[in-house]
């Protein structure tokens, strides 16, 4: 491990930067039920003990790879995933499907899709459909707007069509839990649109509205139930519905449900569902509380991240921020940053694993820094958008195979660049947004490895301080007090910002 002894212009640099990660961190409201608001929900619901031999068997793998998908060369698949910034973690994930017809959905579903006039599946659909259709548990890190509703609802329709018909007194086969009434209603509209043609019935169950109509729908028998947790618990306790037939469970916006204090309710509900169900969990962020839910509820799951939407940093990255401020003058600060950068690189290059990407803001700065470093004998190469594709490919290859362990780059390399063994990312200039920051530092710690990100933060970047703090907090990183001071000086209420 690199020692941090000689680095940094702030005395907190080492202490905070290299300190063990704090537990808990940001968020604040996560985890605890809002006592009093819900009383003790589900008090009368007993945890079920399952005898797997007695439960009726059911099918959950309906996936048959389309010949067009089978024929598609691995390189093309890889390029697709990379260009859409999709990352997949977990074993035996099927290939994505890039066209609607490759999903083999029933005709009545395809007819509804055709009417929308969409060009192709969204990335989360492309990778989510084959996964969900194959019966696997999955986590999707995606936000509203990514097409995630259809990513789980269309496989749900296929799942339901393969199950025995509902009988009198049966509860839903597919349960979608959502944090808010608005989201639940939105999901149900989609379920109704696609379910209509397939004669599947759905109901939306949420608090703050009369119970009567919701109960009547449930009692009539529905294949799909979309619910907020509190009202569903009410109905389960009162015996208005049950989850004996539920074999397809969706947790939508899991992070938000936890933020709203629904964890105890969710756990009570999930306890009522047979453990060999298929579970799909969706979240915009991936903090440790959500990871814990996934560990508890999902089995050997595959995780899909759509990078462009991923707003939280990989937790395997140690993030160190050096706040540099040498007087009022910009050029003095710049001088200091270069000085610090070179000292940092000396330390890094003495490490056995030392592959490093340095990000600059502009092409000009990239060229200047590359020239200066090469002149001083550093094994560095530059890459940016003005270089020809051929030159970029060549530079990347040199970097990939370790001939030049230092890559100096603009944001052309911040997304999609997948070099397995990058150990360090240095933000020589701070990027334009915290999303870019997350992508840049995500070039290290690929596939479960660890990595370190160093960031030089100057008064010019002050307006980004609050956002950066939110990212650090979400990842349970120690925070340089100078950064906090900067955020405060700007009047930002940085303490309350959690990344969502
Ligand atoms: P969602 O993320 O599920 O809230 O979906 C966001 C919006 O994207 C909705 O208006 C959908 O109708 C739309 N949508 C879903 N799938 C696609 C697609 N493949 N192409 C274009 N738009 C889509």
TrEMBL record:
Residues 129-304 form the Helicase ATP-binding domain. Residues 25-34 have a biased composition (Gly residues). Its EC number is 3.6.4.13. PROSITE patterns: DEAD_ATP_HELICASE, HELICASE_ATP_BIND_1, HELICASE_CTER, Q_MOTIF. The keyword Nucleotide-binding applies. Residues 340-487 form the Helicase C-terminal domain. Residues 98-126 form the DEAD-box RNA helicase Q domain. A motif (Q motif) lies at residues 98-126. The keyword 4Fe-4S does not apply. It catalyses: ATP + H2O = ADP + phosphate + H(+). It is an enzyme of class 3 (hydrolase). Keywords: ATP-binding, Helicase, Hydrolase, Nucleotide-binding, RNA-binding. Signal peptide: none annotated. Gene3D superfamilies: P-loop containing nucleotide triphosphate hydrolases (3.40.50.300). InterPro entries: DEAD/DEAH_box_helicase_dom, Helicase_ATP-bd, Helicase_C-like, P-loop_NTPase, RNA-helicase_DEAD-box_CS, RNA_helicase_DEAD_Q_motif. Residues 25-44 are annotated as: Disordered. Belongs to the DEAD box helicase family. This is RNA helicase. It comes from Oncorhynchus mykiss.
């Amino acid at each position: 491990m690199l020692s941090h002894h000689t680095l940094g212009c702030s005395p907190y640099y080492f202490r905070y930067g290299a300190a063990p990660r704090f537990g808990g961190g940001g968020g604040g409201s996560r985890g605890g039920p809002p006592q009093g608001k819900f009383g003790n929900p589900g008090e009368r619901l007993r945890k079920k003990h399952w005898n797997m031999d007695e439960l009726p068997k059911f099918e959950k793998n309906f996936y048959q790879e389309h010949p067009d998908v089978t024929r598609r060369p691995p390189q093309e698949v890889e390029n697709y995933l990379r260009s859409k910034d999709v990352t997949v973690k977990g074993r035996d994930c099927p290939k994505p499907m890039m066209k609607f017809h490759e999903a083999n959905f029933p005709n009545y579903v395809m007819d509804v899709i055709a009417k929308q006039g969409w060009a192709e599946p969204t990335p989360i659909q492309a990778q989510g459909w084959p996964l969900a259709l194959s019966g696997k548990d999955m986590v999707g890190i995606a936000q509203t707007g990514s097409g995630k509703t259809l990513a789980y609802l269309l496989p749900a329709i296929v799942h339901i069509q393969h199950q025995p018909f509902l009988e009198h007194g049966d509860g839903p086969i597919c349960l979608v839990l959502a944090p808010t009434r608005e989201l639940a209603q939105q999901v149900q509209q989609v379920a109704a649109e696609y379910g209509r043609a397939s004669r599947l019935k759905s109901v939306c169950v949420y608090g703050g509205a009369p119970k009567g109509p919701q109960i009547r729908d449930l009692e009539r028998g529905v294949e799909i139930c979309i619910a907020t947790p509190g009202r569903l618990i009410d109905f389960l306790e009162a015996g208005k519905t049950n989850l004996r037939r539920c074999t397809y469970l969706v947790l939508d916006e899991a992070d938000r449900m936890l933020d709203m204090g629904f964890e105890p309710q969710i756990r009570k509900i999930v306890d009522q569902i047979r453990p060999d169900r298929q579970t799909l969990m969706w979240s915009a962020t991936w903090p440790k509380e959500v990871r814990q839910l996934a560990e508890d509820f999902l089995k050997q799951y595959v995780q899909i991240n759509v990078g462009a939407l991923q707003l939280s940093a990989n937790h395997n990255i140690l993030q160190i921020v050096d706040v540099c401020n040498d007087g009022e003058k910009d050029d003095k600060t710049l001088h200091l940053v270069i000085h610090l950068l070179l000292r940092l690189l000396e330390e890094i290059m003495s490490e056995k694993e030392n592959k490093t990407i340095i990000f600059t803001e502009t092409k000009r700065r990239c060229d200047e820094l590359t020239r200066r470093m090469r002149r001083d004998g550093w094994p560095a190469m530059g890459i940016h958008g003005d270089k020809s594709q051929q030159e970029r490919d060549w530079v990347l290859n040199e970097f990939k195979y370790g001939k030049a362990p230092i890559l100096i780059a603009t944001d052309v390399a911040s997304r999609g660049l997948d070099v397995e063994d990058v150990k360090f990312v240095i933000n020589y200039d701070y990027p334009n947004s915290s999303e870019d920051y997350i992508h840049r530092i995500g070039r290290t710690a690929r596939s479960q490895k660890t990595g370190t990100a160093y960031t030089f933060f100057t008064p010019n970047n002050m307006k980004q301080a609050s956002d950066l703090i939110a990212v650090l907090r979400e990842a349970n990183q120690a925070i340089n007090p100078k950064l906090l001071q900067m955020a405060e000086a700007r009047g930002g209420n940085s303490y309350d910002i959690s990344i969502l």
